[in-house]
Design brief:
With 286 residues, the protein is mostly helical. The protein has helices spanning 15-22, 42-65, 74-77, 81-113, 132-136, 143-147, 150-161, 173-187, 191-216, 222-246, 249-258, 262-276. It is globular.
Length: 286
């Protein structure tokens, strides 16, 4: 079961944890001294609240300087390709700060109430829904579901993704498509959401291959391959995220066309390469 107050707006929390909290059970039992925090909650709360205000300030500034309506103006349409990409990415990043703000505000509230406490080993992590620096500096597309909308991602992974696997099998591309489709329905029925999540399945599939290729490459070239993987991941994410802002099918496709479908071109190239070049097997240490 889910906590009805968080299932639609996030961060998603399991109902059992909410039930334990309101009834002082488990890690919330005031008599279970070994499960209670060893230090004050205040420093953790103040840190989260500080970054909440910082994300709000950054979002407000960037949205005034670079509103998302900018990508439909004649100035943007007539700009060279590199400038279109740069402006589009700034717009998308500015919008992401809105989510960083709202999710951190909720997280700060959970800390203030005590519900964010998950036990002495985990600490104040319940309700943690995003790690902004991990998202912005990701070295792989596979990092995005791990650090963005974390609680919803955990739900999708547990209740959808892993349940697509057969006996003694790992979830494959089909499980990825099903999971991203469910995620699209969760967000809403706007075409932009579907374009994003179905396309991101291709991005994630290609990222798996790039990760394996990097892991199997000589140690001396791994940093270069990791950097390239990170750059390509950022281009694809920010390109696809435009559909999340525009939502309309026609506007999204037109905007992508202005960018020469660069994100989908990268996905197609990586997937074709993955069919030609198989990742090297790791050598066994005797």
């Amino acid at each position: 079961m889910t906590d009805p107050t968080t299932v639609l707006i996030g961060p998603f929390l399991e109902y059992k944890h909410y039930n334990n909290f309101i009834h002082n059970k488990g890690v919330y039992d005031p008599l279970a001294k070994s499960l209670r925090p060893a230090s004050s909650w205040l420093p953790s709360f103040l840190t989260t609240f500080f970054f909440t205000l910082l994300y709000l300030a950054l979002h407000t500034y960037l949205m005034r300087a670079f509103p998302y309506s900018l990508i439909t103006t004649p100035e943007w349409l007539q700009a060279p390709m590199w400038r279109k990409l740069a402006l589009a990415f700034i717009v998308v990043i500015g919008q992401r700060f809105k989510y960083y703000f709202s999710w951190n505000l909720t997280y700060a509230g959970l800390k203030l109430s005590g519900q964010a406490w998950a036990g002495p080993q985990e600490g104040w992590v319940r309700g943690l829904n995003v790690r902004p620096m991990k998202v912005e500096l990701a070295t792989s597309s596979a990092d995005y579901p791990i650090h963005w909308n974390i609680c919803t991602g955990n739900w999708l992974r547990h209740y959808v993704y892993t349940r697509q696997q057969g006996p003694k099998q790992s979830p494959g591309f089909r499980a990825l498509i099903v999971t991203q489709t469910v995620s699209g329905v969760w967000h809403g029925l706007y075409p932009g959401y579907w374009l994003f999540f179905l396309s991101s399945a291709l991005m994630l599939q290609g990222s798996r291959w790039m990760y394996k290729m990097t892991a199997g490459a000589p140690v001396t070239v791994q940093p270069v391959l990791t950097f390239i993987h990170g750059v390509l991941s950022a281009i694809q994410l920010n390109y696809l995220a435009l559909s999340f802002l525009l939502l309309d099918f026609g506007s999204t496709v037109q905007t992508w066309r202005e960018l020469y479908f660069i994100g989908h071109a990268i996905m197609a190239l990586v997937l074709v390469l993955s069919m030609i070049f198989k990742p090297p097997k790791k050598s066994k240490v005797l």
